[in-house]
From TrEMBL:
PANTHER family: PROTEIN TOLQ (PTHR30625), TOLQ-RELATED (PTHR30625:SF17). Keywords: Cell membrane, Membrane, Protein transport, Transmembrane, Transmembrane helix, Transport. This is Biopolymer transport protein ExbB. Coiled coil: none annotated. It is found in: Cell membrane; Membrane. Belongs to the exbB/tolQ family. Residues 92-213 form the MotA/TolQ/ExbB proton channel domain.
Length: 227
């Protein structure tokens, strides 16, 4: 009975030693690993903030009133240009801003109206894509920063081996190995999150751009109709 207890206790101790939290990995990674992980954490916060802010802005811009163009047509048909402009101002979306720009050019050649709308459209797209390119940069930079941590960790490990005098102890190499592994994983996680969120915002932006193009064509067709 005593022998059985003696056999059980070492197993319990070994299982406890294998338990290691993410925070412990970062702490045991040394100063270099902690700095790299700190940079990656800041990049993650920036990426999440940009995604949430842009997602809400694009979502608001994509709201579409199905009766908007009918109301514009009604106002223009009766010659109430100011009323059409007022309707656009109240709606306050990229589509309404383009239509308002076109309305302000009514009376000029159709080509001039189309050019004015195109220029206004470029500005609206620029507003929608504000800071989205930062996500693309983070998605590419984060894995490279993580790889930099890997290189630093390996340098630390090689330095420890060189100073060991032929006696290699795995505990001596742990700091470098922890830095190498945790920074690589951290960089990949931040990069993947940034890449996914970037592409999602691109898809949402393309949807708004399509709405802008469709409503612009509808507005130009309206101007071509006989009053």
């Amino acid at each position: 009975m005593v022998q059985n207890q003696a056999e059980v206790l070492p197993v319990a101790e070994v299982s406890q030693e294998k338990t290691l939290s993410i925070l412990d990995l970062i702490i045991d990674g040394g100063v270099g690993g902690q700095i790299i992980m700190g940079i990656l954490f800041l990049l993650l916060i920036v990426a999440v903030y940009i995604y949430v802010e842009r997602f809400l802005a694009i979502k608001a811009a994509s709201k579409e009133d199905k009766n908007f163009m009918n109301q514009i047509k009604e106002q223009i048909s009766i010659g109430n240009i100011d009323g059409a402009k007022s309707l656009c101002s109240k709606t306050d979306t990229p589509v309404s801003n383009l239509i308002q720009k076109g309305i302000s050019r009514i009376g000029k050649p159709l080509e001039d109206i189309n050019t004015a709308i195109e220029n206004a459209g470029k500005l609206e797209v620029y507003k929608l894509e504000k800071n989205v390119s930062v996500l693309a940069t983070i998605s590419g930079a984060a894995p490279m920063i993580g790889f930099l941590g890997t290189v630093i960790g390996m340098i630390v490990s090689i330095h420890e081996i060189a100073n060991a005098g032929g006696q290699i102890d795995i505990k001596m190499l742990s700091d470098g190995l922890y830095t190498a592994m945790t920074t690589t994983v951290g960089g990949l996680i931040v990069g993947i999150i940034s890449y996914i969120t970037y592409n999602h915002l691109v898809v949402k932006t393309d949807k708004v751009v399509y709405q802008m193009e469709a409503k612009t064509v509808e507005f130009l067709d309206l101007l071509n109709e006989p009053m």
